[in-house]
Amino acid sequence: MSKNTNAKIQRKTNPRTPVLIAALKDEARQNEVAIWRDVAKKLEKPGRNYAQVNLSKINRYAKDGETVLIAGKVLGSGLLEKAVTVAAYNFSATAMKKIAEVGGKCLTIEQIMEENPKGSGIRILQ
Questions:
Q1: Distances from the Cα of 75 to the Cα of 42, 59, 98, angstroms
Q2: Whole domain around residue 34: which residue ranges?
Q3: Digit-coded pLDDT (tens) for 71-110
Q4: Angle of helix 3-10 versus helix 16-31 axis, rounded to 10
Q5: Taking 70 as the threshold, does the pLDDT of residue 5 lie above it?
Q6: How many domains does the chain have?
């Protein structure tokens, strides 16, 4: 890691973030998968620039049974009519409740990285 990149990562106030970024970059190098590097780059940016995605947007763009990854927070505004697996950095309480009601799953980025190290079949929303 370059000196500048390492300094950016260490400035994060949430102790989970630098560990997650390092794990994403390691996984990208080991499996030669660009999706994890892309997510790491999104999380290196300031927290105010993280994606905030409503359930209505997930409902609009995701197909039934698909896996969706959000490098930010999932918010509970809108309706979700499809059973999708949503992996995100963070969830609001209402979003978790609504996703579970339709038969979907809420996962952290760490969990989806363990389940699907190659990153196949994952759609990134922002």
A1: 18, 12, 10
A2: 3-125
A3: 999 999 999 999 999 999 999 999 999 999 999 999 999 9
A4: 140
A5: no
A6: 1
Extract the tokens encoding 63.
Answer: 């197909």
Q: Tell whether the model's pLDDT for residue 1 goes beyond 60.
A: no
User: Residue 8: helix, strand or coil by DSSP?
Assistant: helix
Report which secondary-structure segment, H or E, holds 87: strand 85-91
Instruction: Give the Cα separation of 54 and 37 in Å (integer).
Output: 24
Q: What's the CATH code of the domain at 120?
A: 3.100.10.10
Count CA atoms closer than 13 A to 28's CA, side-chain side.
14
Position 12 scores a pLDDT of 73
Q: Which amino acid is at 40?
A: A
Structure tokens at 76: 């509970």
Q: How far apart are CA 90 and CA 99, in angstroms?
A: 13
Residue 50 carries which side chain, given as an amino acid letter?
Y
